[in-house]
Amino acid sequence: HPLLPVEDGSVMSYPPPIPYTRNGVRLGIEPKYGKHQCHQNAILSFVYGYQLPQIIHFITTLIRSGFKGDLVLGTGTDLTQESREYLEYISSSDTTTATGIELNVVVYEIELSCVKRGNSNPCQAHRLFQDATTGECISDFRKLRRVATLRFEYYWAWSSLYAPDTQLFFTDARDVYFQGNPMVRGLEFYRNAGYAPNTTIIMFEEAATIAQSRANSRWILKTYSETVLQQIAEKPVLCSGTTLGGQPAMETYARAMVYEFDHSNCGNCAKLNDQCFHNYLVHTNRLEGANGGSISTVVTHKQGEGGIVNTVGLVSLRHDGASLHDLGLIQSESMAILDNDKTTTSAVIHMYDRDAGMKEWVSTKITQELLEWNSTGRAVPRA
């Protein structure tokens, strides 16, 4: 059981998010395609419910970014034939040998038990854990929760497989693409700032404070309280969709996100519980120093600064509806989205689809990538 937190959170100790059994517990999931390279950096993304059109640009641009390491994907079991053939192809060692692709793709097919409830489909994961002795699946002891929250249990399970000297990046996929290698940018930042790579975690701000975002304010209020909302209202909105850090830090962060759900009185009243938990943990100082210092430093990068992740979803809203192009944040020839200095090409773009012009441009790219896959049977050009 976890220690009780003190006021500043400095001695928080987050337990692994596993059920208690007399015989012990082991993970009950195995990859459908591919194998982990546990001494390599890894990008983890939960793409449950998505098909190839929602993920092909994410994967294609990641390959072209030059990232070398694991891409771990959690899909649903309802993949179309097109999606399944693509993922099997891209995760095959024969493909990496033949094409020179240095991305190692690991695919899990996730089986969840979900309930239709209005516009949401809260779920349980009855196959994530097994009894260590009998091998029988352990029924999910947690209440129904949205997939955006539930994914952190899988992030924890996957992150626990990697070596302490690796870097991990938890990221959304549908509205994310790559213009550069986030791991290279992250390591450059650690080196220049003097931070320890394995115990530092980087969060990424949106272009608004919590008070300026009615949605985020409502989520905090419904999940926590008016007191908490007032306490953090002037803090920047931190996006729970992208987080980068060393393996010890990220494994503890995933524990903390699940812990917040387990100890929240609000299972379904907020639309995006994970965003509430993410902002609460950082803005009330419940991560730094946690679990014996496995998180030594929490860094937040302002929106459009730092060169790693540029979360552009609220930029237009904060500038009276002006587009990224109008603001001079798109390089006209390459269509690369730039940091706010209008010079640095951001490595990762998140929430591009809030900008009409970029949404149309990426949609065209997706169409081209799908045509190339269906006509040639190759996901990307040979390296």
Task: Give your account of this protein's structure.
The protein is of the alpha/beta class. It has 12 helices and 14 strands. A 7-stranded mixed beta sheet has the order 4-3-2-8-11-10-12, with helices on both faces. Helix 1 packs across helix 12 and helix 4 runs antiparallel to helix 8.
- Content of β-strand: 15-25%
Number of H/I helices:
12
- So what's the overall shape? globular
Unreliable residue runs: 1-9
Average predicted local confidence, pLDDT:
91
Radius of gyration based on Cα positions: 20 Å
Strand order of the largest sheet: 4-3-2-8-11-10-12
* Biggest pleated-sheet summary: 7 strands, mixed
> Whole-Å distance between the termini?
49 Å
β-strand number: 14
Give the structural class. alpha/beta
Please write out the topology.
Elements: E1 25-27, E2 42-46, H1 52-64, E3 69-75, H2 81-90, H3 93-99, E4 103-109, E5 113-114, E6 123-124, E7 129-131, H4 147-159, E8 167-171, E9 176-178, H5 182-193, E10 200-209, H6 214-223, H7 226-232, E11 236-246, H8 247-262, H9 273-283, H10 290-293, E12 297-301, E13 309-311, H11 315-318, E14 348-350, H12 356-376
Parallel strand pairs: 2-3, 2-8, 3-4, 10-12, 13-14
Antiparallel strand pairs: 1-7, 5-6, 8-11, 9-14, 10-11
Helix pairs in contact: 1-12, 4-8, 6-7, 6-9, 8-9
